[in-house]
Protein 1
Amino acid sequence: MDKLKPCPFCGGKAELDPKYHVVGCALEYGSCDVIPQTWGCETDEEAIEAWNRRNWEQKTGKWIRRFETIEDENGIEYNPHCKCSECGTEYEPYFTRVVKYCYRCGARMEGEQDG
């Protein structure tokens, strides 16, 4: 079997599940922020090749905080929302307090900025 590269997001060990021909991060759920996997492969070799040919160059970005004015029966509130500076995917603020990577583009978030 070819050697598996480590997880590009957490650096953890990757492992193969031969039952489903899937390679993924071997860390327990919650230890890796992204938990990437290779689904849709028909053989172990195909899964290993797919895992190892991924783009291993890590992008970095910031959580961009913005305030959206929402008017309700009690007046006006300011509710913070966030988006990834690299791809623009929007997230709820609670998400950005615990997750260090954008799920869509994989960018590692290094801080915040107002937007």
Note: The mean pLDDT is 77.
Protein 2
Amino acid sequence: MKKQVDIDIETAPDILTAEEVAVLMRASRNQIYAMAKDDKIPNVKLGRLVRFPKRRLLEWIESGGCAYLNQRNRSRRLFP
């Protein structure tokens, strides 16, 4: 059974993991990694690790950056 991650953006650390970002954006961890790979979401690569600066991520979300995620989800919907 997967561990459910619950995150409060106010108390979250300054650098987030893909799992934490996925919870915040209500997306899958794989979608977050795909967006990071395509540089569609603010991220920092530390060797093999990918992390997400909270401040840049929130600015990106507020500026409408989630449109990429919505566009990808629209093409994969099971029901119209």
Note: Confidence is low (pLDDT under 50) at residues 72-80.
Protein 3
Amino acid sequence: MTNREVMKIAIDRYKDMQLIVAIEELSELQKELTKALRNINNNKTINLENLVEEIADVEIMIEQIKMIFRIDDLEVKNVIQRKVNRLLNKLEESNNE
């Protein structure tokens, strides 16, 4: 069974609860990032394993969000490219100041 098939079953079974799970996973990633930043500022080791786990959970939930709302991957990629280009422009402008 593919990852997408498993996610479809989860969406069908749990319906809108998957959106709540997505919010929870985003919160857990936020918590791990906060811990990482605190550890950086205190010259401590960052727990990369936990950070990777939470990133994976969020990526899984993002895929399910796209499935639930029928958001096309290409549409998201196009928006990402536009936003990265805008970031590049800002970086180039700040170099010229």
Note: The CA atoms of residues 65 and 92 lie 34 Å apart.
Protein 4
Amino acid sequence: MWHNVEMNMPNKFVNNLTDENIIKLEQLWQTSSNFRLRNRSQAVLLSFQKVPIDETAKICNVGRDAVSSWIKRWETDGYEGLSDLRWSSFSGHKTLSAPYIFNF
């Protein structure tokens, strides 16, 4: 029988955001027409504030693995990592699944 026991899951947090990063992420979160980009920007900001991944996942209405992936993509690719940029499984080339522009 399964019990509803909260496990102490590991967390990773974004540690290095500049003031400029914070301003840009807040702008994306609050004004982007792309819902996924807004969600991912918010997750990075919450991570920087040391909000646990499980709580961020609830706020963003996604699974914990999605939040973990977004944090990793931010750490490796910055703003581009928040976009819908994906690797094509057939060609191995990067393709855009939705248009995005980061104009600041």
Note: Residues 19-96 form one domain.
